[in-house]
Amino acid sequence: MKKRLLSVLFVLFMLSITSFAQIIVKGKVVTAKGEGLIGASIKEKGSNKGTSSDLNGDFQISVSNNAILIVSAVGYAPKEVQANSSQLTITLTESAENLTDLVVVGTRGKARSSILTPVPVDVIRINQVNMPTAKMDLTSILNSASPSFNFNKQSGSDGADQIDLATLRGLGPDQTLVLVNGKRRHQTAFVAVFGTRGRGNSGTDLNAIPESSIDRVEILRDGASAQYGSDAIAGVINLILKKDVGTLSFNTGYSGYYDPKFNTHYGKELGQYRHSGAIDGNALSVGANYGVALGKNNGFINFSGNFFKNGKTFRQNLNTDLSTKDGLPINTVRRSTGDGSVTSGGLMYNMEIPIANTKTIIYSFGGGNAKSSEAYAYTRNFSERPERFPDGVIGNPILQTTIDGETYFDPIIQTKIQDISFAAGIKGIWGKDWNWDLSNTLGRNNFHFYGDQTFNASLGAGKTHFDDGGFSFLQNTVNFNLSKVIPTVASGLNLAFGLEHRYEAYEIFAGEPDSYANYNADKATGAQGFPGYQPADEVNANRSNVAAYVDAELDATDKWLLGVAVRAENYSDFGFTSNYKFATRYKLTNNFNVRGSLSTGFRAPSLQQINFSNTFTNVQGGNVFEVKIAPNYSPITKAAGIPDLKQEKSVNASLGFSWKPVSNVTVTLDGYRINIKDRVVLSGQFDESIPALKPILNQLNVTQAQFFANAVNTTNYGLDLVVDYNKKFDNKSIRVLFTGNLNRLNIDQINIPSVLSGSYENQQAFFSDREQAYIKASAPPVKLGLNLDYGFGNWMVGTHFLYYGKISILGYGYENTYPPLVALDNDPNTTVLEQFNYSGKMVSDLYGSYKFSKRVTVFFGADNVFNVHPDLGYVQGAKLSAYDGETGGAWDAVQMGFNGRRLFTKLAFNF
């Protein structure tokens, strides 16, 4: 009996030990393609034990014997598996509802669905939006896909014709940070002098990155200075490069403008202008992408290339009410009305190589782009200001155009731009669960000007091509990041720490002497259209920046997410700054989330703004004159009373919600308020009415001067709305996407220097009503978009509507027009400064596509199918263009563009 009792007790004891025994489970979480999933959550059912997968998808966890593991990842359906002591391979299936909106920008933890992020993020998949449109450059494509992304195409404004600077939420281009694969992208060396958007700013040339290399674009529409860098005041644009292997994708497209209402060519051989219904602005694009697998551990290298060629467009106002000269306003002929030509080609690669038997990955990406372009400067009339023209120029067919007996001259501005970038790094796992990433990113932009079919009047008419010099910008960033997921703290905690060092260098190099010199005091100085950079403009400046940051994301509960970031930076020229961000998201229900954030920002003036120096040709009311932009530290700047530049400071707040009422519909609404103190902008134009400036202006042989200054404090208010509906059934699909942005910019204060505060004229010179109107027109107050797509079988048809709200600017109108305007000073030969109104306009696109096979698809259609144009400006009741250096000719540079209807066809191949 005792033996039986002992046997029973022994069995019970062994069973109890077994029930409480712990086993070590090792495994890997993979996709259906066998790729490791980083950041997948592995939890023991019924307990608080958990871990997450590393960079390769591997994990290790200690659990009870026979435990059930719950494995999940954002964008994938969760899965339960039985734990055992053998090596597990767990395959997760993609979730159709969430797969397309995973985002990594804005977090250093695991990727999240865009509706679960605490701040608004747009996810734009390039292969879905770049084919059904006539737009062939990345900036234009994003402009129609994101609610608060804005840009306008400038015309006849020096380098602004070739660099399309984009903005977020109506702020400056240099207040948005651009990343590639999460690494900082360098800015262009260019400084915008003209235009309603980006005046006095630099920015990143998105078009220098081949579209064919990009998988998706993530646009973080919120202040992120504490997370990525002090200059991310408006937000972050993150370009994610492709990782595809084994598939060759190739696409080619053609587009051209068909605008019979306003298309005008000037034929020198005919001695007259002619109205034309022909297609112009012909554009050809070619793109290719191919990836090769490296090794047996999911390594790859992916190559991409793009070629783009776009011809000039010619637009002119032909309203016969404006002139007695056959429909052309007197003294306003301008061939520069329209886009310049451009030829561009670029290459990009993206590579990852896992090191065998380790948890370490070597990666690299980069590429180069070369761009060559031509644009017309302002047309000169030989009958006006003869000192501008040398003997012998009349009769030279290269340098003149005759229209209705009047002889005109059209200088051409050529640019050659080179852009290169290279990033390399190594990342892996330290210990059991610390993710680390060390990288170096180098980028350089070089911008070189040439003058063609022009002359230096003081030199003579023999030389017609000039090297005008230019500028370059280099940036090198070293970054180290360390992060760890701690699943046992609350519902999950991600900690990240990092260090960053950034070096920047900016250079201006002079052109040849003939491009800027004066050889005859009775004649105009320098090459017409674009006088070259002078030795006095030359600069070679640099600075460095050191930063440290801490970033934490806590899932306090399954419903409540908290995010905190702190960043400290020290500039070698502007000193120390610290920035903070707090963000949160709370799930009120399973399908309704409330989110909000509060952050600060600090942007030191760019090296371009501190050091830019140039003499350029401006036109106001038909008058042509030279303007000097002087660096902040120059004697002329101090003589004008402009103080030293200082940093911009900002406070950014947002509040909104995301809602998924049914599985196929997503709604997000986010409001924002951005206050910026001491914004760096380009001042108004000072002339000799300031006594201290008169001798300096005369010495420089210029009429006016401009400066960079912390001129204004501004506040932006706005609202972003996105409604997305996707439905697939049988062999049909429907998509309805509505995007909307309401934006308002207030000028809270003009920071007039004390030496200028006593005179209204001085105040207007510092930052005039005209300059204020331009900064307020940085983005349309209303931007609405509606995309309707319907697929059936091998066919897809769709229409896109974009509405741009009314903007108003101030510009100079030439009074000598028909019918005559009443002069403000009773002088019929002067100009007037009046408000130009551009009413809201709807642009409609129409497209179709047909899939011949799984490998070949054709797209065709028209952008702006109804040939809608902006209004002409209004001056005292008469329609006419502004005719000054800010405009594109008959229209100012407004966001919808002025080229009219654009036809296109594209072919996509996949092998």
What is the number of domains?
2
Radius of gyration: 30 Å
User: Structural class given helices, strands, pairing?
Assistant: mainly beta
| Shape summary | globular
Average pLDDT score: 82
CATH 4th-level superfamily of the largest domain: TonB-dependent receptor, beta-barrel domain
Number of helices: 9
Q: Using DSSP, what is the number of strands? A: 49
CATH structural class of the largest domain = Mainly Beta
Distance between the termini: 79 Å
| CATH domain topology of the largest domain | Maltoporin, Chain A
Beta-strand content estimate: over 45%
Low-confidence stretches: 12-20, 96-100, 266-275, 317-333, 814-830, 874-883
Features:
globular; Immunoglobulin-like; 911 residues; 7% helix; mainly beta; 2 domains; single chain; 9 helices; five-stranded mixed beta sheet; cell outer membrane; Maltoporin, Chain A; 22-stranded antiparallel barrel; 50% strand
